[in-house]
C-alpha cells in the first residue's frame, strides 16, 4: 500500500518516502483536471520513492503516463526530485516559480568546486573553526547529491491561476523557506463544507507540527543581502489573510485553523529573536551564536552537515535583527561579529 488518501473533491495524496530522513515522507497531491491528473510535488529521486509513487497513482485509479502537469512548491529534492522521471513517463509539463528555477539552473551548471569554495569562504566569514571548514576544501572534487534536477518548462506566476482545465488553483508566492516557494490555493468550496476559503497546498511553508528551516538564499553569483526570515514572516501573514478552510502540507498531515498555526509560528520566531538578542549582549559571530542557540539536541551531537544548516539559520535571524535595528555588525570585525543595539 502506498498510503494514499482520498481528500475529496478530486484531490488525493500519496505518501512518498524520503530515504534516511526523520521527516519520513513527502505528501504528493494528485489533483484531477479535465485533461487528466496533475501532481503537486513529486518526491525524492530514489527507486523506492518512485515505486511508491507509481503504486500510489494506480491506487488513485490512474497512472504516471496519464499525468498532465506537475506543479512544484519549491526546488528542494524531497519535492522536485522525481519531476524529471514523471515528465519522461508522461510528457507532462513542470511548473516552478522563477526564483527557484534560477537555483535549479545554477545547480545544473555549477561546478561542485565553485560551490565548495563559496561555502568555505562563507563559513570562514561566519566564524566557523578551521577544522569545520577544512573538509569542504577537501571535498571539492566530490559530486553533490541532487546535482541534476529537472529544468521546469513553465513559470509559476504569483497571483495567476495554474493551467489546469476545470480547476481553480492559484499561485500564492510565499518566499522564505526558499526564494521561489509557492503555496497553491484551490479556490473551490471545501468538499466537506468546512468554513473558510477553499484549501491551501502549503508545501513546506506551513506544517502542522514542525517549523520549516529558514536559512539564507545561498547564491555564489549574487551578493545582495537578503532577509529570508523577514520574507518568511510576511509570507505567513499572507497565508493567514487567505483564511483557507484546510491546509494540505507537503509533510505530516492535513489540518484546519490556519490562523492559529500561523500565530504559533509567528510567536515562535518572535521569542527566538528575543532569545538571540539576550545572547548578543556580548558580541558573537554567527557560528558562536549557533553554538549557543537551542536546537533539538546539544551542539556537540549535531552532525557536520546539520551544523551548516544551523549556522545559516542563525544568520537569517541575525539579518532580521539587523534589519529591525535591534542588532548591528561590529565594524571592522573579521569574522563578522554581531552585537545587540
Ligand atoms: Zn523544503
Ligand atoms: Zn520538504
Automatic annotation (TrEMBL):
It comes from the Bacteria. It comes from Streptomyces fuscus. Residues 25-251 form the Metallo-beta-lactamase domain. This is MBL fold metallo-hydrolase. Pfam families: Lactamase_B (PF00753). InterPro entries: Metallo-B-lactamas (IPR001279), RibonucZ/Hydroxyglut_hydro (IPR036866), Sec-metab_biosynth-thioest (IPR050662), WH-like_DNA-bd_sf (IPR036388).
Amino acid at each position: 500500500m502506498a498510503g494514499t488518501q482520498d481528500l475529496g473533491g478530486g484531490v488525493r495524496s500519496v505518501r512518498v518516502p524520503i530515504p534516511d530522513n526523520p521527516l519520513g515522507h513527502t505528501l504528493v497531491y494528485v489533483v484531477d483536471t479535465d485533461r487528466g491528473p496533475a501532481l503537486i510535488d513529486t518526491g525524492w529521486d530514489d527507486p523506492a520513492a518512485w515505486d511508491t509513487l507509481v503504486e500510489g497513482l494506480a491506487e488513485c485509479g490512474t497512472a504516471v503516463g496519464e499525468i498532465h502537469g506537475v506543479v512544484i512548491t519549491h526546488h528542494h529534492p524531497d519535492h522536485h526530485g522525481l519531476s524529471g522521471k514523471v515528465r519522461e513517463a508522461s510528457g507532462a509539463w513542470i511548473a516552478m516559480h522563477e526564483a527557484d528555477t534560477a537555483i535549479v539552473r545554477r545547480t545544473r551548471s555549477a561546478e561542485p568546486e565553485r560551490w565548495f569554495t563559496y561555502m568555505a569562504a562563507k563559513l570562514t566569514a561566519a566564524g566557523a573553526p578551521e577544522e569545520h571548514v577544512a573538509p569542504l576544501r577537501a571535498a571539492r572534487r566530490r559530486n553533490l547529491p541532487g546535482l541534476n534536477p529537472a529544468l521546469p518548462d513553465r513559470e509559476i506566476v504569483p497571483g495567476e491561476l495554474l493551467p489546469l482545465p476545470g480547476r481553480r488553483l492559484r499561485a500564492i508566492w510565499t518566499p522564505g523557506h526558499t526564494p521561489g516557494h509557492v503555496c497553491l490555493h484551490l479556490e473551490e468550496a471545501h468538499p466537506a463544507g468546512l468554513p473558510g476559503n477553499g484549501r491551501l497546498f502549503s508545501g513546506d511553508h506551513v506544517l502542522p507540527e514542525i517549523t520549516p528551516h529558514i536559512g539564507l538564499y545561498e547564491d555564489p553569483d549574487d551578493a545582495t543581502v537578503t532577509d529570508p526570515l523577514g520574507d518568511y514572516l510576511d509570507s505567513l501573514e499572507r497565508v493567514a489573510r487567505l483564511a483557507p478552510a484546510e491546509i494540505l502540507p507537503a509533510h505530516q498531515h492535513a489540518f484546519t485553523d490556519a490562523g492559529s498555526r500561523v500565530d504559533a509560528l509567528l510567536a515562535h520566531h518572535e521569542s527566538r529573536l528575543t532569545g538571540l538578542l539576550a545572547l548578543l549582549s556580548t558580541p558573537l559571530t554567527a557560528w558562536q551564536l549557533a553554538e549557543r542557540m537551542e536546537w533539538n539536541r546539544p551542539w556537540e551531537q549535531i552532525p557536520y552537515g546539520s551544523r551548516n544548516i544551523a549556522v545559516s539559520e542563525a544568520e537569517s535571524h541575525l539579518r532580521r535583527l539587523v534589519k529591525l535595528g535591534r542588532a548591528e555588525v561590529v565594524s571592522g570585525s573579521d569574522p563578522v561579529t554581531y552585537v545587540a543595539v
